[in-house]
Specification:
With 82 residues, this protein is mainly α. The chain has 5 helices and no strands.
C-alpha cells in the first residue's frame, strides 16, 4: 500500500496503516485492488525504493494468491497487458 509513509504515525512497516488496507481489501477483494508505486513519491518524507515497498505487501497480503492478484493479476487485467 504505497503512500503509507505519508499518513502513518509510525516508521516502517507502518503498523497503523494495516487496518485501512485490510478494510479496502475486504470491501473490494483482491480482484479489484492493485498495488501502485505512488510515483514520483511527491512530498514523501524519505525516498523508498520499489523493493522495500513491495516487501511491505507481504505482511498485508500473507496469502500468496491474494498477493499475486493485487501485485500482478489485477493490474495486468485492468491495464490490458497480456
Amino acid at each position: 500500500m504505497p503512500g503509507q509513509s505519508k499518513f502513518s504515525a509510525h516508521e516502517a512497516p507502518y503498523p497503523d496503516t494495516a487496518p485501512y488496507f485490510q478494510a479496502r481489501l475486504a470491501a473490494f477483494g483482491p480482484g479489484r485492488c492493485l498495488w501502485g508505486s505512488d510515483w514520483p513519491h511527491l512530498r514523501a518524507p524519505a525516498r523508498i525504493g520499489y523493493g522495500p515497498l513491495i516487501a511491505l505487501s507481504r505482511p498485508l497480503l500473507p496469502d500468496p494468491a491474494d498477493r499475486r492478484a493485487v501485485l500482478w493479476e489485477t493490474p495486468r487485467r485492468l491495464l490490458g497487458f497480456d
